[in-house]
């Protein structure tokens, strides 16, 4: 039973099949989808199942469902939400070469701010959490898990719930990508230095220093990723 996995539900199958068709330009942005009856037959699902999948696609910004009219495929880069990011990582062969770099650039903009706020609001909590970095196993999996928990902890300690909601939107793929990143021993060593410097700032209750340390680490992570990016052309 160790290798057993639950079969994909019909609505999830329909949703993923349509996303794949959008990404491979079978249904490019601006096009319309076939009618419900035809599409259900082509996907091999019932019409109620297809409707459920279409509702989820519309919610996430992949399509616009119009009553009595054909469903239009959106420009997902402009109309999509955070769930589009999760889907793009799932369909990794469709990721543009600079996808993760752009994600890291967003983190570079956000992390210094929530890190500064966290050390300002709860330096003891940040320091206590970072104590765990000293026990990290030197594996990509251990670092990926700790790094995710650290940034989520910092957003919570910042006192700004919006930061946490944004971070939670990345939960499905953060560790997946981080495991690739932390396969590099240089990346792990860089992060150890970041954790140690941030711990020092937290102990000193120096929020400005925490901000500077975070910004430097985020810049460094972009440089490191560009060296190891498995999707670069």
Account of the protein in words:
The protein is mainly alpha-helical and 233 residues long. The chain has two domains: 10-92, Winged helix-like DNA-binding domain superfamily/Winged helix DNA-binding domain (Arc Repressor Mutant, subunit A, Orthogonal Bundle); 96-228, Four Helix Bundle (Hemerythrin (Met), subunit A) (Up-down Bundle), CATH 1.20.120. Helices cover 68% and strands 2% of the residues. It is built from twelve helices and two strands, in the order αααββααααααααα. The protein has helices spanning 10-23, 36-43, 47-60, 76-79, 82-90, 99-121, 123-130, 140-158, 161-168, 171-181, 185-203, 207-228; strands at 63-64, 72-73. It has a two-stranded antiparallel sheet. β1 (63-64) and β2 form a beta hairpin. α8 packs antiparallel against α9 (161-168) and α11 (185-203) runs antiparallel to α12. The longest helix is centred in the middle third of the chain and has 23 residues, at 99-121.
Distance between the termini: 40 Å
> In which order are the strands of the major sheet placed?
1-2
**Roughly what is the average pLDDT, rounded to an integer?**
90
Global Rg? 21 Å
Low-confidence stretches: 1-6
Q: What oligomerization state is this entry in?
A: single chain
What percent of the residues sit in helical stretches (DSSP H or I)?
55-70%
N to C succession of SSEs: HHHEEHHHHHHHHH
Strand content range: under 5%
Shape verdict: elongated
């Amino acid at each position: 039973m160790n290798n057993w996995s639950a079969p994909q539900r019909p609505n999830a199958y329909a949703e993923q099949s349509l996303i794949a068709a959008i990404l491979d330009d079978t249904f490019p942005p601006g096009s319309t989808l076939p009618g419900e009856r035809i599409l259900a037959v082509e996907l091999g699902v019932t019409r109620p199942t297809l409707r459920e999948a279409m509702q989820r696609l519309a919610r996430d910004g992949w399509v616009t469902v119009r009553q009595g009219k054909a469903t239009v495929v959106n420009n997902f880069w402009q109309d999509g939400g955070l769930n589009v990011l999760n889907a793009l990582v799932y369909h990794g062969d469709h990721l543009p070469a600079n996808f993760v770099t752009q994600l890291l650039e967003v983190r570079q903009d956000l992390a210094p701010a929530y890190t500064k706020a966290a050390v300002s609001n709860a330096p003891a909590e940040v320091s206590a959490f970072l104590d765990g970095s000293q026990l990290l196993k030197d594996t990509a999996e251990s670092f990926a898990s700790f790094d995710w928990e650290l940034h989520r902890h910092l957003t919570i300690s910042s006192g700004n719930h919006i930061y946490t909601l944004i971070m939670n939107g990345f939960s499905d793929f953060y560790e997946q990508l981080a495991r690739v990143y932390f396969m590099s021993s240089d990346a792990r060593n860089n992060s150890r230095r970041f954790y140690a410097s941030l711990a020092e700032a937290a102990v000193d209750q120096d929020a400005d220093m925490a901000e500077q340390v975070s910004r430097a680490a985020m810049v460094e992570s972009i440089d490191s990723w560009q060296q190891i990016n498995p999707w670069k052309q």
